[in-house]
Amino acid sequence: MRRVFTSTGQEGSRGMINTLYVNGIYKGYYNLCEHIREDFLQRHHGGTHAWDVRQVTAIASGDGLAFQEMLTYIRNNPQSTLASYQGMKTRLDMVNFADYLIVNLLGVTGDWPHNNFVCARERSVNGLHRYYLWDAEGAFGDFSGNVRTNMFVAGTTGSIITTAPATAGQGEGIRILYTLLRASPEFKLLFADRIQKHFFNDGALTESRLLAGWNLLKSELAPVIAPTAVTDRVAPWLNGVGDATRYTTTGATNTPSRRNVLFNGYTDDVAGGTFVQPHLVAEGLWPATRAPASPSPAARRRKGCLPECRGWSGCGCCASGAGRRIGWGFGAMHWCGGGTWWSICVARPWPGWCRRGRGRRRWTSTAAPGGPPATAR
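and the corresponding structure tokens:
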């Protein structure tokens, strides 16, 4: 899980498999890893400032005053207000926090988030709180979690929700922060952007990348432990078992993949064929209907599109940043057709608008795939 976290572009503890001999006697194999403390943070983030380092509720260096101030601020400033969210951005690294949550949502990390985390902040004017993965061996099916666990429900394994954000203790900081931040449309938009980055287009959390990382780890262990002795929980988690769109325990066994649980939903035959809504969609972090795919670069050129038009480039409407988002929406893309072009933002679950050159266009789920958006205007 630490390797998965750093693959998203975040700083994190690196480890290696090694054997231990004492006076020539073999004592076993160990995972030697970097300890996330002030010297680690200075090396990875640069600078010579001191750091506040918190491991759950224990203060390893500095103090907990800035952390307490951050919790006090978010409790007293509703994140549904843009100014309040911008205030939180001066206290918490939002991209880091979103990536940190997404990785743990993928693995259904147990004995977390009330435990097994490190939170650190550089003691400087612009210092931000950042979270680091630590002791995540409870992922992929431990601590009563399973591939179907809904971590957006309070009380489940690895739940990131608290029903008492105003009074929960500092050890519940992750739950307090997410529970209150989800009131912010800007935070939801950022979360969706990070999901898009990591789960699609050969991102760090695509099945092929994750399985490649898992196979690499197994090869590193091979000299000290027989591969057949490793219980493979990762491949079934990512690929599912049998029909990966269903959960069945009688007759043919079927288990959904984690991707289907998060993005597509699955049919629960154990519950009489009930369809379980995809967790990310039900939480409002991902649209129920995705935008149509962007035309290829060659097709865009044939249609006379501007060269900077790109699909899913963020809500700036194009990678060059020439566009401007003036509302909420998931991502942005361009539609080329009839020698003209369209600027499109996904309008679910929040109405989205993009302004680009010739005017404004809006896309909704009624748009016909393969043609211009039906509701563009």
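(Above: one complete record from the training split.) DSSP finds twelve helices and 14 strands in the chain.
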